[in-house]
Amino acid sequence: MEKTLPKSVFQKFRQQQRGRTSLDRATADAIAHAVRVWAMDHGATHYTHWFQPQTDTTAEKHDAFLDIKSSIINGIKTTVAIDSFSGSQLLQAEPDASSFPHGGIRSTFEARGYTVWDTTSPLFIQDGPHGTAVLYIPCVFISYNGEALDEKTVLLRSNEAISNAAVRLLHMIGDTEVRNVHTTLGVEQEFFLIDRGLYSLRPDLKICGRTLVGSIPPKHQQLEDHYFGQIPSRVLATIAETEIELYKLGVPMKTRHNEVAPAQFEMAPIFEESAVAVDHNLLTMQILHRVAHRHKLKCLFHEKPFKGINGSGKHCNWSICTDAGENLLDPSVKPESNPRFLLFFVATVYAVYKHGTLLRAGIATASNEHRLGANEAPPGIISVFLGDQLNEVLNAVEEQRELKSFSQHQIQSVKVGGTVLDLKVATLPPISRDLTDRNRTSPFAFTGNKFEFRAVGSKQSPSFPVTLLNAAVTEALLEITSVLEEVKGDKPKASLEDVLTVVRMYIKKSKPIRFEGDNYSQEWVEEAGRRGIENITSCPEAFKKLLEHQNLLTETVPILTMAELHCRYQVMVERYIKDLVIEGNTLKTLINQYVLPAAFDYRKEIASTLVSLKNVGMDINNIPEKMILEELGKDTDELIKLNDKLCEILERVVKITDLDQAALVAHNEIFTIMEDIRKYTDSIETKVSSKCWLLPSYSELLF
Ligand code: ADP
Ligand code: MG
To answer: In what residue span(s) does the GS catalytic domain sit (predicted)?
Structure first.
C-alpha cells in the first residue's frame, strides 16, 4: 500500500489503522482503486468480505469486480462491462446474517448483518479455478444493532483493553514513551493425516471427525518411535506444499514435525500480532485440509479422533509486546529487579489464578471434552507452570532475600538465554540452558519469554480463548495499577521498591495456582481440591463459568454486552448438544448398519460350521467355535439393549426445551452411554473375522 498509494492517502490509512481517525470517502475510494488494480494484476476477478462467525471457521461470499455501464454515444445507447470497486464496497458489506449462529441475539426476520473491513489484518489473494483469483478482505461481523456476531470483534476489543491498561501501568513506572502494546500469538497446530480412501469408508470420521468405534491395535504409540521421527514422504509432500501455499498468503510457517501418536503431526508459524495470528491459523487449517485432499490424504483436526491414542491440541503461545517491539514477558538478565517483567509476569499468573475457570470455559467443546476430562494432556484443572528458575525468582522476591540458584557464572550466561551445561565431550561446544524446563502436562506454562496456553482444542478457533486471556490479564493489570498508584503516593513515578511491594502482594495472592508437578496425576487432583482450584471435567459445568464471570466481561473489562455474553453462552451450549446428538445418531447407524450385521454374519458362518462338524459326527460342545459363538451372542445382546437405550435418550433429548437441561442430559446420558456401547462394539470387532468387518481398523487407518 505504501508503494501504490499517494503519500497523503497512505498516511490517512495508517492513522485509521491506529484507531485515530476513520476513513473519509475520498480516501476509501482511492484505497479501493489501488487495491482493485493490485488484485486484478494478480488474476483476481472477485472480492470477498472474509469473516469469522461463531463456528470455528470462516465465511465468505464472492462478488465480481464487474459492473455494467450504459451511456448514450452519438445518440446510440451503448452498454459496456466495466471493472468497479468502490471505497464503500471495500469498507462494508451486508450479508444475510440469519443463518449464522447468533444465540438468540436477534430474531430470524431481522436478517441484516454487516461485515466491516478490519484494517489491522492484511488483505490477501487466494487462487481460484482456471487461473482466476479472489481478493480477501478480513472483516468483523456485526448485527444490525451493532452487536458482535463473530469471533474477531471481541478479540479486537480485548486487544484494545489490554493495550490501554498496559500503557497506564508502564507510564506509572516511567516508561512514558510507550503509546500502545499488542498481544502476540504463535499457534502450534496439531493434526492427524490419514489415507482418504480409508477415511471415506468410515461414516463416523466423515460425520463426526472422530472414530466412535474401533479397537486399539497392539502397537500404537508405546514405543514413542513416531515422535520427531522422519516425516513420511506423502505427509512431507503435503506439508511442504501447504507451506508454499501459506507463504503466498503471507503466513510465516516455520516448524513441522511428527507428533507423539502415529499419523499425528504439527505445524507452527512465527508468532504475530494476535488478531493476525488467528486469521493465519484459520487459513493454515483450511489450506492444510485442501492440500491434503490433493495428496489423497485426509486431515483430522478433531481433538480425539482415536480412542486410547494421544489427542491433538492447539498450543497458544502468548505474550505482550510494546510498540517498540519489546517483549514485556522477557525476563532479561536480572528478572528479579526488572519492574516491567515482574509486573506483567505476575499480572498474568494472577489473572489465571482469578479467572482460570473462565479460561476453562473458553476451551470447552464437545470434542475437547475428550482431552480435558480424560487422563490426558491437559487436565480440567487450570494451573500455571513457571519452571525452577522463575519459581525461585518469585520466591526470592516474596521472601525478600537474594536469589539462591544464580551463581555469578550462571548470571553471565543467562545473557545468552540460560545457564551453561558441560557435556563432558571435548568436541561438543558448551550449550546454554533455557531459563525454564518443559512441563508437557501443564495447561498453562511459562516457556522462556511467553506463556503457552496448551489446553486449547486443536479444532477450535484460537480467537475466543485468547480473548478471554486478554480480558483476564487486563483486569489483573488494572487492579495492580491501582494498588501501585496508592503505594507510589505522589511521587511522579513508582520506584523499584514500590513495584516490589506490589509484586510481592500479588505473588502471595496467586500462589495456589502455581504447580510444577505432574498435572495428570491423581495427587494433583486432590491437592488442587485442597487449594480450592476447581477441576472442571464436563462442558455444561464449564459453560456456566462464562456467565459467572459476567462482571469481568461486561463491566471491568467491557468486551461484551450482557446480550452478547448470553448469546455466546447459548451458541456454545447449543453447539454442544447438537454435536452430541449427531454423534449419538451416527453411532446408532454404525451399530445397525455395520457392527450388528458383522456379528450376525460371523455368527451365521460359525453356526453353519458347527452344523457341518456335527454332521460328520464331531462333538461340538466344547470346541472354540462354540465358545466364540456364545460370547458373540452375549456381546450382541448387550449391544442391542444399549442401542435401544441410546435411541430412547436421543429421542428424549431433542424434545427438551431448556438448553441447560438438554446439555446436562447430553453429557450425563449420551456421552456416557456411548462409552459403554464402545466396550461391546470393540469386543465384537476383535472377535469377528476381518472378512465380516467392513470398517477400516485402527491399524489400517494409522499405519
Ligand atoms: P515448542 O518447542 O513449544 O513446541 P514451537 O517452536 O513448536 O515450540 O512453537 C513455539 C511457538 O511460540 C512458535 O509459533 C513461536 O513463534 C511462538 N513464540 C515465540 N515467541 C513468542 C512470543 N513472544 N509471543 C508469542 N509467541 C511466541
Ligand atoms: Mg511444538
So the answer is: 151-595
